[in-house]
Design brief:
The protein is mainly alpha-helical and 305 residues long. Helices cover 78% and strands 0% of the residues. It has two domains: 57 residues, no CATH class; 203 residues, MetI-like fold, CATH 1.10.3720.10. It contains 13 helices and no strands. The longest helix has 36 residues.
Length: 305
């Protein structure tokens, strides 16, 4: 197991280098940030001087080499817009995004686990049809549309929750529900299909024949053995979760990493874009690594060679 983890960690470095190159290339192609940093009446000399001071007059390979050298030293560069260290700005916004993401996962689990199990145990009934139909609708609804509808209903008309901002549980509920609904829909369908497969296994029939209570058979024996695929899809949903966070934070004006990243893209603030994307990539990689570890905990038969 330890050697396996060392091997995975060693693979993270080239992956991050490839990601940094792709992001740097895309930002380079997107346009010159100097045009946004100076007034419209700036002279050609002023533009050239600023480009030279920022190192933007050098060839692409030279710029990327300098950036990579700084990256190895833990320096993500300085934000053109804020005049501060880009990585510091990203770290200041990251806790808000993690708070929203964790809350969304909790909402998804609260919805999907009982609904998926209930649907599997009531297979081919009206309850099953209602649960699967709701999962399809939840998956089909765009995050931004659901967020706007929740704001209109629960904030504007009913006045139960604040519209925007962060600070209390009330501020967190609507964004978490908006973000967690799509994940819950995916997890509900997966839990249902896995539970149906597990409930048909011989050891479940044996447990029932021994007179064990139905609740114990379903939750202790069947549900635990159906968790591995659920963990897999949860880890894979990390990238989708982060993408949804970007949209949800914009709709609810949530002061997280997504809102910072979108503003940086609009202003072509390369340092923040690169620092944010690399941070997100590290989170996705770590989530997949944690999923691998959880496989071994849930099923000791899984070996890593």
């Amino acid at each position: 197991m330890f050697n396996y983890l060392l091997k995975i960690i060693a693979q993270i470095i080239p992956v991050l280098i490839i990601i940094s190159f792709i992001v740097f290339a895309l930002v380079f192609i997107a346009g010159d940030p100097v045009a946004l940093m100076l007034p419209e009446d700036a002279s050609t000399e002023d533009i050239a001087l600023l480009r030279e001071s920022l190192g933007l007059d050098q060839p692409f390979i030279v710029q990327y080499g300098n950036y990579l050298l700084q990256l190895v030293q833990g320096d993500f560069g300085e934000s053109f817009r804020y005049g501060e260290d880009a990585f510091k700005l990203v770290m200041e916004r990251l806790p808000a995004s993690l708070e929203l993401g964790i809350a969304a996962i909790i909402v998804a689990i609260i919805i999907s686990v009982p609904l998926g199990i209930w649907s599997a145990t009531k297979r081919n009934t009206s309850i099953d049809l209602l649960a699967t139909g709701g999962a399809v609708i939840g998956k089909a609804m765009p995050n931004f549309w659901l967020g706007i509808m929740l704001i209109l209903i629960f904030s504007v008309h009913l006045g139960l929750f604040p519209v925007t901002g962060r600070g209390t549980i009330a501020h967190l509920i609507l964004p978490a529900v908006t973000l967690g609904t799509g994940i819950a829909a995916e997890m509900t369908r997966l839990i249902r299909s896995n539970m149906i497969e597990v409930l048909s296994q011989d050891y479940i029939k044996t447990a029932r024949s021994k007179g064990l209570h139905s609740f114990k058979v379903v939750y202790k024996h069947a549900f635990r053995n159906s968790l591995i695929p659920v963990i897999t899809i949860t880890a894979l949903q990390t990238s989708t979760l982060i993408g949804g966070t970007l949209i949800t934070e914009t709709v609810f004006s949530w002061p997280g990493l997504g809102q910072l990243l979108i503003q940086a893209v609009h202003t072509r603030d390369m340092a923040i874009v690169q620092a944010a994307v690399i941070t997100i990539a590290v989170i996705v990689i770590l989530m997949n690594l944690i999923a691998d570890i959880l496989y071994r905990i849930l099923d000791p038969r899984i070996k890593y060679n």
